[in-house]
Specification:
Arc Repressor Mutant, subunit A, 2 domains, five-stranded parallel sheet
Length: 227
Amino acid sequence: MIEVFVADSSYLCREGVIALIEDCKGVKLVGEADNSKTLVSKIGKIQPDILMLNYASSAFNFEDIGLIMNFLPKTKILAVTHSFTLEEITAAIEAGVTSHVLLECSREEISDAIYATAKDDKFFCGQIVDKMMRAGGSDDLSKLAEEIACDPIKISTRELDIIKLIAEGNTNKEIAEELFISTHTVMTHRKNIMSKLGINNTAGIVLYAVRENLIDPGKFLFDQGSS
């Protein structure tokens, strides 16, 4: 079970993140704080796996990151903010942040960030990486973006499930029944997947699944009865 502590001065933002955590399998909320003093007094006793911190909210700052890193080195910090500047991202990473997403990111992207951070993998949302890569004249930021090795193309967990099922030869109806969603939702996901991957047919989805080891190439056979 991944234990997560949430720190944000905004009640609405905090509750939104908590609601997302409660929907994540294998993830448990173990505490929350709306200011630095409460954060420090609580988190030392709990020692969570991840601290989801909005360092840009009124009651927190970069010093909180350094403080947590000093006395809880095993706790990973996942920053979740409304917006960002390149200077803030650089400062956050230098302070010890493992991952960084925005509050406007999709539910899937934020949950993926939680799972990745728990495994000590760096996860930065596509918007952040894209801006860092476009930082003209800043070798440090471009290098930093390469180091976190984050692909701006983000495939959600649900999309990966659908890619795998498509590659295994399932129809839209069969996928809908397997995942307990509507056929229309499957078709929408299929369109989004092809748009993200820059492909326009099922064969492209199959090739992606093989390349990413989502299916065993040896088990995949095209329907020999089709013409």
